[in-house]
C-alpha cells in the first residue's frame, strides 16, 4: 500500500490476478467493489465482518487488503462464487511510534495523515492507536472536488495471557459532487472530452457521514481451545442532491442526453455478531483443527427520495445546463429490512509424515429474511435458506512445492430491491466452483508463486432488464440467468534477490452467458466487465544502507487490461489499455520523502 502510494481499494486489489474494477461512476455513493474471477463481489468485509459499503474506504487505518478467492471465501457466507475483499485494520503496537505524512499532487491534491500508537499503561496491558486523515483534492473532471475527514481510534486490552479485547471506533465525513463519467454514442464512441461533465456542480452533491463501533474478544481456554467473539455497529448517513445523466437518445451525429434530478436522504444501520470456537486435537495420528461458529446480522435502510426527469441537453464539449430544483419536493419513502442467521463448521486435518497432506471439509447453513415497503405499502417478503459446502486438499510434494484442489458451493440472496418487471423479488443466486493449482516457495520463504485453473458457474443470476422499468424509472431485472467463468491465474510476490521487491500477476478468463430466458441473443456472449487478459508487474529496488545511495528506493510497474465489454450493454467494446507507474522514495533518519 505504501510502496505504490495507493489512494483507494482499487489501487490495492489491481495487484491480484483475476480482479478488475467494476462500477459505472467515477465517484460512486457506495464503495465500488471489483469483479473477481468473472463475477462482481457484492460484499465488503472489515476484519471478517460484513461492512456497509456506503461511502469509500480510506486506507489510513488499513493494515492490508485480503482478496479471498474460491473456497477460501466460503466460510464468510453469502458472497459471490469468485471471492470477496476483506479489509484488515491496523492494531495498536507495544512500541510507541508516531508517523505523520503530507501529500501534494496534481489537480490540487492535498492529503495529511497521522498514525500514532503505543502503550497507555506501564505494564503494556493497554495499548492505543489513532489514525487520522484529511483529503482535499480536485479532479481532471470539470467541477469535481473531494473533501474527506477520517478518524479511527483503537484500544487493545490484554488483561491476562491468552485473552485480549480490541475496541475500535470509526468516523468518516465525505463531500463531493456526483459524477457519472463520459457518455458514449450508439456505436460505443466517446462523445465529449475526458474532462466534460454533465452534472450540475452547483448542487449540493453528496454528503456522507459514516460511523462505526466494534469489539473483538479472543480467549484461549488452553493451548488447544480458543473462543472468538465479535460485535459491531455501523451507521452510514448519505444526503445526495444531483442532476445526473440517464442515457443517450436521438440519432447518430445528433445525440442528446436525458437528465434526471434526484434528491435523496439515506440512512443505513447494521448490527452484526459472530462467535466461534476452535479446538485442536489428534486422533489416530491425524491432527484436527475443528471450528464451529454462528453469525447474525441485522440491517435496515431508510430512503427519502425525490426524482424528476428534466429537459434533454444537446451533447457538446461545453454543455449549457440551466436547472432550478422545484421548491416542492414530495419524497418517496422506502424502507428495507434484512436479517441473516448462519451456522458453520469445518475440520482441517493434517496427516502423513510431517502433515504433508491436508484435507479440509466444511459446511454452512444460512437463513435470510428480507422485507421492504414503499410509502407504507409492503412488498412481498424474501425468505431464503440453503446449505453450502466446501472441500479441499493440499499435498506438499517437497519443502518448495505443493499441489491443491478444492470444490465449493455458494449462496447469495439478491436483496429485496432486486425485482423483476412484475415487482417480484428474485430467487437467491447459487454457484459452484472448482479449482486446482500448484504453489511454489523458496527455502527461505522470501519469494512465492501460485498457479491455478478454475471453473465457476452461477444460477438464478439477476441481470438488468434494459427493456423494462417500473413506473418511477427504477431498474428491473431478468431472473433465471445462468453464467460461467473459467480460466488460469498466476500470482508471484516476494524478494527474489536482496533489495528487490516484486509483485506480479496474470489472469486469463473466459466467461459467457449460458441461459437467458428473456434475451436469447445474450447466450454465448462474453460477460460485461470481464477482460480475457489482465496482467500486472511491479518491482522496486532498495539501495543498500551502507552505500552512497543508501536510503533510496526506486520502483516502477506496468498494468495491462485487454478489451472489454461494458457491464450493462454487451454491444459496446472498451479498448484494451496499458498503464505505467513510477515511484521513488528516500529515507533519512525518521523522515521519508515519496514521489
Describe the structure.
- With about 600 residues, the chain is mainly β.
- It has a single domain, classed as Beta Barrel (Maltoporin, Chain A).
- Helix content is about 0%, strand content about 60%.
- It is built from one helix and 32 strands.
- The protein has one helix at about 10-15; strands at about 20, 35, 40, 45, 50, 60-70, 85-90, 95-105, 110-120, 125-135, 145-160, 165-175, 205-220, 225-250, 255-285, 285-310, 315, 330-350, 355-375, 375-380, 380-395, 400-410, 430-440, 445-470, 475-495, 500-515, 535-540, 550-560, 565, 575, 575-590, 590-595.
- The strands form four sheets. It has a 23-stranded antiparallel sheet that branches. Strands 5-4-7-6 form a four-stranded mixed sheet.
- A hairpin with a 5-residue loop joins strand 18 and strand 19.
How many helices? The count is 1
The level-1 CATH class: Mainly Beta
- The CATH architecture would be Beta Barrel
Could you name the ranges where pLDDT drops below 50 across 5 or more consecutive residues? Answer: none
Mean pLDDT metric = 87
Q: What is the number of domains?
A: 1
Q: CATH topology, anyone?
A: Maltoporin, Chain A
Helix fraction? under 10%
Shape: globular
Query: CATH superfamily assignment?
Result: TonB-dependent receptor, beta-barrel domain
| Major beta sheet summary | 23 strands, antiparallel
Number of strands: 32
Which value, in Å, is the CA radius of gyration? 25 Å
Judged by helices, strands and strand pairing, the structural class is: mainly beta
Instruction: Report the sheet-strand fraction.
Output: over 45%
Distance between the termini: 14 Å
Amino acid at each position: 500500500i505504501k510502496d505504490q502510494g495507493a489512494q483507494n481499494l482499487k489501487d490495492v486489489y489491481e495487484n491480484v490476478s483475476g480482479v478488475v474494477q467494476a462500477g459505472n461512476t467515477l465517484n460512486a455513493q457506495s464503495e465500488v467493489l471489483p469483479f473477481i474471477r468473472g463475477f462482481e463481489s457484492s460484499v465488503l468485509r472489515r476484519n471478517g465482518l460484513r461492512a456497509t459499503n456506503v461511502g469509500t474506504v480510506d486506507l489510513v487505518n488499513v493494515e492490508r487488503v485480503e482478496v479471498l478467492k474460491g473456497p477460501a471465501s466460503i466460510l464468510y457466507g453469502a458472497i459471490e462464487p469468485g471471492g470477496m475483499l476483506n479489509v484488515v485494520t491496523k492494531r495498536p503496537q507495544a512500541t510507541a511510534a508516531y508517523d505523520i505524512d503530507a501529500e501534494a499532487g496534481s489537480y490540487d491534491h492535498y492529503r495529511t495523515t497521522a498514525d500514532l500508537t503505543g502503550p497507555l499503561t506501564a505494564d503494556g496491558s493497554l495499548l492505543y492507536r489513532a489514525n487520522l486523515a484529511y483529503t482535499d483534492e480536485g479532479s481532471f473532471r470539470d467541477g469535481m472536488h473531494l473533501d474527506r475527514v477520517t478518524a479511527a481510534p483503537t484500544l487493545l486490552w490484554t488483561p491476562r495471557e491468552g485473552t485480549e479485547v480490541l475496541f475500535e471506533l470509526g468516523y468518516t465525513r465525505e463531500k463531493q459532487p456526483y459524477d457519472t463519467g463520459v457518455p458514449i454514442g450508439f456505436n460505443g464512441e466517446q462523445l465529449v472530452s475526458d474532462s466534460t461533465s454533465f452534472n450540475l456542480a452547483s448542487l449540493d452533491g453528496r454528503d456522507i457521514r459514516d460511523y462505526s463501533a466494534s469489539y473483538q474478544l479472543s480467549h484461549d481456554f488452553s493451548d488447544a481451545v480458543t473462543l472468538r467473539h465479535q460485535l459491531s455497529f455501523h451507521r452510514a448517513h448519505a444526503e445526495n442532491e444531483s442532476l445526473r445523466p440517464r442515457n443517450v437518445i436521438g440519432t447518430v451525429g445528433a445525440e442528446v442526453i436525458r437528465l434526471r434530478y434526484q434528491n435523496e436522504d439515506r440512512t443505513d444501520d447494521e448490527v452484526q455478531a459472530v462467535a466461534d470456537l476452535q479446538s485442536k486435537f489428534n486422533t489416530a495420528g491425524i491432527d484436527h483443527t475443528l471450528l464451529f461458529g454462528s453469525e447474525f446480522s441485522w440491517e435496515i435502510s431508510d430512503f427519502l427520495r425525490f426524482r424528476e426527469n428534466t429537459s434533454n441537453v444537446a451533447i457538446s464539449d461545453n454543455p449549457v445546463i440551466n436547472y432550478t430544483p422545484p421548491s416542492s419536493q414530495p419524497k418517496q419513502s422506502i424502507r428495507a429490512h434484512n436479517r441473516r442467521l448462519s451456522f458453520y463448521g469445518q475440520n482441517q486435518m493434517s496427516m502423513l509424515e510431517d502433515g504433508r497432506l491436508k484435507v479440509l471439509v466444511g459446511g454452512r447453513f444460512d437463513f435470510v429474511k428480507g422485507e421492504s415497503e414503499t410509502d407504507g405499502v409492503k412488498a412481498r417478503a424474501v425468505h431464503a435458506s440453503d446449505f453450502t459446502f466446501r472441500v479441499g486438499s493440499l499435498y506438499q510434494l517437497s519443502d518448495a512445492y505443493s499441489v491443491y484442489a478444492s470444490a465449493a458451493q455458494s449462496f447469495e440472496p439478491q436483496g429485496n430491491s432486486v425485482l423483476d418487471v412484475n415487482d417480484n423479488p428474485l430467487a437467491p443466486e447459487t454457484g459452484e466452483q472448482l479449482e486446482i493449482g500448484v504453489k511454489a516457495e523458496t527455502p527461505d520463504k522470501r519469494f512465492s508463486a501460485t498457479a491455478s485453473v478454475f471453473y465457476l458457474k452461477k444460477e438464478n443470476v439477476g441481470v438488468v432488464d434494459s427493456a423494462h422499468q417500473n413506473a418511477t424509472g427504477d431498474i428491473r431485472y431478468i431472473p433465471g440467468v445462468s453464467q460461467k467463468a473459467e480460466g488460469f491465474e498466476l500470482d508471484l510476490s516476494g524478494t527474489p534477490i536482496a533489495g528487490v521487491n516484486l509483485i506480479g500477476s496474470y489472469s486469463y478468463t473466459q466467461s459467457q452467458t449460458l441461459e437467458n430466458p428473456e434475451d436469447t441473443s445474450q447466450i454465448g456472449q462474453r460477460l460485461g466487465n470481464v477482460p480475457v487478459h489482465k496482467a500486472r508487474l511491479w518491482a522496486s529496488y532498495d539501495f543498500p544502507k551502507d552505500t552512497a545511495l543508501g536510503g533510496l528506493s526506486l520502483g516502477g510497474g506496468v498494468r495491462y487490461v485487454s478489451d472489454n465489454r461494458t457491464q450493462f450493454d454487451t454491444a459496446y467494446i472498451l479498448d484494451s489499455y496499458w498503464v505505467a507507474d513510477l515511484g521513488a522514495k528516500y529515507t533519512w533518519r525518521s523522515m521519508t520523502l515519496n514521489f
